[in-house]
Every structure is written in structure tokens, then in C-alpha cells.
Amino acid sequence: IEMEYLKEKVDAGAQFVITQMFLDGQVYLNFVKECRAYGINVPIVPGIMCLNTFGGLQRMTTLCKTRLPPGFLEKAKAANTSDDDFKAWGIEAGVEMCKEILAGGAPGLHFYTLNLERVVVGTLLGLG
User: Is the pTM of this model over 0.70?
Assistant: First the structure.
């Protein structure tokens, strides 16, 4: 049903789509394939939620029912030794995922910043 609604929006004139947050690049790539198969051919911009705190990661993944790549939560827990260490890991994880989806054809990136710029800036710097 969700694809039907999305297709209706595009057919009514939507010129692009921004996804909800995800933390597994393959989820985005699979979604784009599904959209194309359904006849949704506008640009699909990935919505990126940067990882600022372990608690925030837990809240957002529970709230949004976000699928995590294998081992992701364990890596996040291991990086949660200090605020700076977690943010550094969040930047590394964000850069890795952004590179994956850009290589897979993403037309750009949309960052959900929540007015927290440090990890977003670090991710952008990591992308070059």
C-alpha cells in the first residue's frame, strides 16, 4: 500500500523523494530498486540520521523500527566509551554508509541534523 501512495504522489507532480532515516545502506538500495520496479522514477534522496549518542541511536532505531546491519549495535556499544569516541565512530559509520549509497547511485544526501552539526560536518569532511 505504501508504494501505491508514493506512486500517487509522484504521479501528482512530486519531483523527488526523500527517504526516512536508515542505517543500512542496502535498505536504501533495495528501496530504490523496488520503486523503479513500481514505476517510480524520480530521484530518491537518502535521508541520513547521523549518530551523535548511543542513547539517541537506541531511541531512533526503536521509534522508527530501523533495520541495522549485522554487528552494528555491537560496534556502537563498543564505541560508547565516551561522547567523543561515540561521535568519532558515528562519523566513520556515516562516511562508510554514505560512500556505499553514493556508489550505488544515490543522487545526493539529505542529513537529518536535529541541530547537531558536529557529526554531520565530520561526515561531510570524511566524504571529501
Answer: yes
